[in-house]
Write a structure and sequence with these properties.
Elements (H helix, E strand, L loop, with lengths): L3 H4 L2 H11 L6 E8 L2 E4 L2 E10 L4 E2 L6 E4 L5 E2 L4 E3 L7 E4 L2 E4 L5 E7 L6 E15 L4 E19 L5
Parallel strand pairs: 2-12
Antiparallel strand pairs: 1-3, 3-10, 4-11, 5-7, 5-11, 6-10, 8-9, 11-12
Length: 160
């Protein structure tokens, strides 16, 4: 079956993009960091729980990405993550493939050895294509998230 993205005429898709550029949030993000207090050199993870409005799906193509704003205290292995990088599974509902966002997404990181003691805020965003099969539209959207964490003054000790 043809994707609804391809079924919509180009002019209609552009009109929908401008209509939705008022930025309706189709995706709600609950973000947390575990553990909440970290030492220099310690490993942690960002946990993202994503939920969608009823009747909305997130397309696996074009790319779904999670990006983080640079933060001196946190070192990520990559600058951005795709659904494939994060091993997010897909599901087929009503003959259309979409991302299965039921499970929390875990993205590991390490606290910088030069991290300053105190409270910090990590900012990020999720870029995605939302679609409604019922209403026959698709739209590119971005959802931002913020999460706070603290760093301790000392570094993690390695070994005995």
């Amino acid at each position: 079956m043809t994707s609804p993205i391809r079924r919509l005429p180009g002019a209609l898709c552009l009109a929908l993009l401008s209509l939705f550029s008022v930025q309706e949030d189709f995706l709600k993000i609950e973000a947390s960091i575990v553990p909440r207090k970290l030492s220099r050199g310690e490993e942690g993870a960002v946990l993202l729980k994503l939920s969608l409005h009823e009747g909305i799906a997130v397309s696996p193509q074009p790319d779904f990405t999670i990006e983080f704003k640079p933060c001196a205290e946190v070192n990520f292995p990559k600058n951005f993550y795709t659904a494939t990088d994060l091993e997010i599974e897909t599901v087929v509902r009503e003959e259309e493939e979409s991302l299965d966002l039921e499970k929390a997404i875990r993205i590991p990181f390490t606290i910088s050895l030069e991290a300053k003691k105190g409270s910090h805020i990590l900012e990020g965003r999720v870029r995605y294509f939302a679609r409604s099969r019922e209403e026959g539209w698709c739209v590119k959207n971005t959802a931002k998230f913020f999460v706070s964490f603290s760093t301790r003054p000392g570094a993690v000790r390695k070994g005995p």
